[in-house]
TrEMBL record:
Primary location: membrane
InterPro entries on file: Znf_RING-CH (IPR011016), Znf_RING/FYVE/PHD (IPR013083)
Name the UniProt record assigns to this protein: RING-type E3 ubiquitin transferase
Class of this enzyme: transferase
EC code: 2.3.2.27
GO biological-process terms attached to the record: endocytosis; protein ubiquitination
Amino acid sequence: QYVMEVSNIAGHHLSEVVSISTTSLPSDDPFCRICHEGSSNEELLSPCECNGSLKLVHGSCLEHWLSASNTSHCELCHFEFALERLPKPLSEWLKHPGMHHARLTLFGDLICFMFITPLASLSGWLCVQGARDLYYSSSMEAIGLSILTLALLTIYGFWTIVSFRYHILLFRKWRQTNQEVRLLIPTSVTLLTNQQHTTCKISSSREPSKETIV
Ligand SMILES: [Zn+2]
Ligand SMILES: [Zn+2]
């Protein structure tokens, strides 16, 4: 009786597993490997050497992924795509919502630059004038003022270069990962995939599909 109960429970569990696995399996309709949508809104392409359920993809999904990842090859089969990359202009960066923090720091640094530049110039000029006046009367003070001028200008120059480099690097990084990517796919590829879809549908209607989804 105990064995019977176990087998009953096991059988019950197994039937549950079978029902779950059959319901979780997607239909035979081809779908995009990135967004998992079908070909109702956009034609599915097979632009690389991937096979099985991973071979089909929407052109727009692939272009978006290639732009965001800044690559030009398939991550699975390493097929090199023929691409056209169009960098976005500075005006797009100014409107991009994800770059809000970078824009704030840039404007903050620009305001600092506008204030510090005249202040540094005036201080430098005063130090040079003072050093010139003290050159004959007190040479030690003149040397001290000259060193102060040099230190002031060095700090000002260093800050300017570092902050400008930082903002230029941020902008370049944004431009690299926000390019408009266009796939250059020959028309024969799309025709080929359409033919494969129809033959696949015919064969699947005749016999149950044995393809496993990875
Ligand atoms: Zn898609
Ligand atoms: Zn591939």
